[in-house]
Automatic annotation (TrEMBL):
Protein name: Tumor suppressor candidate 2
Superkingdom of the source species: Eukaryota
Source organism per UniProt: Mizuhopecten yessoensis
One Pfam family in the UniProt entry: TUSC2
Gene Ontology biological-process entries: regulation of mitochondrial membrane potential
Cellular compartments per GO CC: mitochondrion
Residues that span the membrane, as ranges: none
C-alpha cells in the first residue's frame, strides 16, 4: 500500500509541477500534460446581485398594508454572483489519493 501511494503521489507532484513550470518529459503525451490538478482555486458564489448591484445572500422588500408592515423575500431581478476566487487553494474532493492512512 505504501509503494502505491508513493508512486501515485510522485505522479501527482510531477503533473502539478508541470502545470506551473510548463516543463514536460518527452515520454509524456499531450493528454497526460493536461492532467487534473488536485487543487481547487475557484468556487461558485452563494450570493446574489440585485438591480442596484448590492451583494447579499437574500433580499427583502418592505410591504406596507395600512397599519401592518412586513418583509417579503425578493426572488426576481437577482443575478448570481458567479465564480469566486478562493483565498487559499483547497483539495478537490473527487481526487482519488490517500492523504493519510489510519492506524490499525
Amino acid at each position: 500500500m505504501g509503494q502505491r501511494t508513493s508512486s501515485l503521489a510522485s505522479k501527482v507532484s510531477k503533473s502539478v509541477s508541470s502545470l506551473f513550470t510548463g516543463a514536460v518529459d518527452d515520454s509524456e503525451t499531450c493528454q497526460n500534460r493536461l492532467a487534473v490538478t488536485p487543487f481547487v482555486f475557484k468556487r461558485s458564489g452563494s450570493m446574489y446581485f440585485d438591480e442596484d448591484d448590492d451583494l447579499a445572500h437574500e433580499f427583502y422588500v418592505e410591504i406596507i398594508e395600512g397599519r401592518h408592515h412586513y418583509m417579503k423575500k425578493q426572488y426576481c431581478n437577482l443575478r448570481p454572483q458567479g465564480e469566486v476566487d478562493l483565498p487559499h487553494p483547497r483539495l478537490n474532493v473527487d481526487f482519488p489519493i490517500v492523504i493519510c492512512e489510519a492506524p490499525r
